[in-house]
């Protein structure tokens, strides 16, 4: 008994001393940088801290005194979305640098920054500031890929990946997105009630789930050549030997990349029925087992096509280009291995799925909240397309002209960027350029580039392109800082400018990151966004349906709350808009406008 007590006491003493030593070391390192810093006697990167504090956030906020909560919140994952610029103004500015501060805790030293000069310097130096290992654990499940690697291995893959995304892929994305959105509208039309037909509107709670479905179908077609019609008949039957279709496996796997995907397949398949979540875990197990098998079949089909008589046919998907690009290289140093090929095929869908779906969903909610911007968009949509639904828009004629639709995407990404921050780590001590001079960051620190704070910088964003505003802008927003308002016209430069769309200063607008690792799917996401919105607005306006007893002001407040209560998971997501079967969803109305 005494012996066990001694062991427990010794272990406890060891942990406390170790934590105290790490804290003291970080505080001294933070002081040496000359940057503002905050001290925390805990380790915010500890997995137990992460898993317990995130769900407890609302409760902790409600019980803790504001002064304590305002400090503690900075240790809870996702604070950047809720706190916006507050910590920079409240803690960093009084210490002499309003753009960056350090968190000196018992974990790694963290540099939180909304300084465009730091962002640009760090994101440019891919060898000095690396992608952290956790990304590999979550997104490297089906093979190494461009997001999970660093150094030479990343450079090789990046070169291949960049070479396969071209204008032909953009056209495929555009056509697929138009086709899928048409399918969605047709389905809604067919399922509408008699009253709805009479009143020329359709109501649904499934709109955001349908947006997700569009995204996964488009990515599967553009990525893997797995063309899936909207009505999903092909979705339903799985090939012999499989329990799920490719799309079903894809959906489940993609929705699990935030965590459960790390659980080994064998454990998932044998998940005990008495533990909550049994059905989902089993499904995930099947999806995880079958997803690479489907990929293998699609790859074989593509290889056969490439060596067969229809090899020269105009088939444009990322898989065919990746195979081609790999085959053209003879050296291992330049071509992709089998593991890398599979890893990147998975990544293209994973990286493009929620990011694009969420951007579309936020834009729809914002347009329903601020309907006058729809009127502004209709002017452009009607100039680009007739209201004849059977007309098929042409990518090269429509996309370059769709500057207002693009400005809605950019403004949505400025306020509700799916990737709220990017994280890099440094193995060795590194000098960094900041707006207040050069600092030396100790080895094994984390640099977190805070997109939310950058996108609200009052030195950058207020009152840009006021001349492009429709006449009604500003009538309701007096006293609210312009940078916090949804005002898409800030992106439209005056007629006659060399660029139609406003180009923010370097390091200030980072929804797609920046530097050598900038998102290679940027154009794909833009093309898909424009195509889906164009088709949705071609004949319809979008509103949120009032709940019983709600007036229009109540609806606005409900939508504000929906936006405010977003949750930063792997991407930023509105709570309760997807999976309507379990959440109830948000009822939206599409009204024929002509
Ligand atoms: C609105 C849509 C999108 C947003 C907001 C977005 C955002 C981002 C961001 C912020 C990064 C940089 C991450 C970092 O530096 O740590 C990134 C990287 C990446 N994205 Fe996207 N993305 C979008 C769409 C797509 C699509 C459609 C694809 C599919 C082709 C894609 C594929 C990738 C890949 C492969 C990387 C890793 C690049 C590298 O590390 O070299 N993304 N994305």
Automatic annotation (TrEMBL):
The keyword Oxidoreductase applies. Heme binds at residue 519. InterPro entries: Cyt_P450, Cyt_P450_CS, Cyt_P450_E_grp-I, Cyt_P450_sf, Cytochrome_P450_Monoox. One of its GO terms (molecular function) is heme binding. Coiled coil: none annotated. Its cofactor is heme. One of its GO terms (biological process) is mycotoxin biosynthetic process. Keywords: Heme, Iron, Metal-binding, Monooxygenase, Oxidoreductase. It holds the Pfam family p450. It comes from the Eukaryota. Belongs to the cytochrome P450 family. PANTHER family: BIFUNCTIONAL ALBAFLAVENONE MONOOXYGENASE_TERPENE SYNTHASE (PTHR24291:SF50), CYTOCHROME P450 FAMILY 4 (PTHR24291). This is Cytochrome P450. It comes from Penicillium cosmopolitanum.
